[in-house]
Amino acid sequence: MVEIPGRAGAAILVTSGARIKIVNTFGSQVVDTWALNADDTTEYLSVEHTRRMTGKIFIERNDDFWSNRRNPMLALEVDTSPGRHDMLVACCDRWLYQHLCCVPGTPTATTTTSMRSAA
């Protein structure tokens, strides 16, 4: 199992048909999850396209997550979370943190993903 500390990111290659398990072991903070097509990283998991393709604001068990090219990328097979998963809120980025007056340089989902993807 790969453990990713809070405010950090990791890139993990997942082949077609393979399964991953994402567990938030500490606290109740959201886990930003990204998926990129390994053969063409301009294709990526898109919350906007997932909403359109599922017709739902809240993703549920057995729903697919769709790409910006309307291809299924991930499927939610099991969900033990006590809450619902909305498809409205974008991940944190430096512009949100500037708006919230956070300390400059605070790690965000986009900066940790960019660092890991480049590795």
Primary descriptors:
single chain, alpha+beta, two-stranded antiparallel ribbon
Number of helices: 3
**Share of helix among residues?**
10-25%
Q: Shape, please?
A: globular
Order of strands in the sheet with the most strands?
Answer: 1-2
The fraction of residues assigned to DSSP E strands is: 15-25%
Structural class computed from helices and strand pairing: alpha+beta
Task: Give structural notes.
- Helix content is 20%, strand content 15%.
- The two termini are 20 Å apart.
- A hairpin with a 5-residue loop joins strand 4 and strand 5.
- It has 119 residues and is of the alpha+beta class.
- It contains three helices and six strands; from the N terminus they run E-E-H-E-E-E-E-H-H.
- The protein has helices at residues 47-54, 94-99, 109-118; strands at residues 36-37, 40-44, 58-59, 64-66, 72-75, 85-86.
